[in-house]
Structure prediction request, 175 residues.
Amino acid sequence: PARTLNEGLIRHAEAHPDRPHIYLSTDAGEEETLTYRDVLLGAEAIARGLIKKGIERGETVAIMLPTGKDFFYTFCGILLAGAVPVPVYPPFRPNQIEEYAERQEGILRNAGAVYLITFQKVETLARLLRPRLADLRAVLIPESLMALGAGRSDDLILAREGDPGLIQYTSGSTG
Prediction:
């Protein structure tokens, strides 16, 4: 049996790399299938990108992405880098971005997030949050991290048994 989520993903990717792992609905209403290999390769690229950015084992990384392949690559990549993912909801209404930023600021501060990984369209939010959070080193997008972490290497930190796998904030803890 696997002792960590990382071990589980790696073992499945080695044993049956082409087996479907995640089924997603696209914005166009089509189904997209991610195999174990897809998730592991995407996660490894994210992890190597974070390591090149200086992530340390046990540090927290906020994920502000809609449900999709980038979210899963990022979530698993943070774990492969030995860090702790902190998913937060992406903004839904651009006209309420400042109110949203205030709520997310509290979550990011409480979690001690050192990076925020989000999508390009949230640049305004990132500009509002960054000066307010002393621990936040950078706001990153998955595509840039994956490009930075492209290629193969064995430099992954990998979480250890007993390390936190996620910090989850609920509406009760954020409201």
In short: The helical segments are 5-15, 36-52, 69-80, 97-111, 123-129, 142-148, 171-174. The chain has a mean pLDDT of 88.
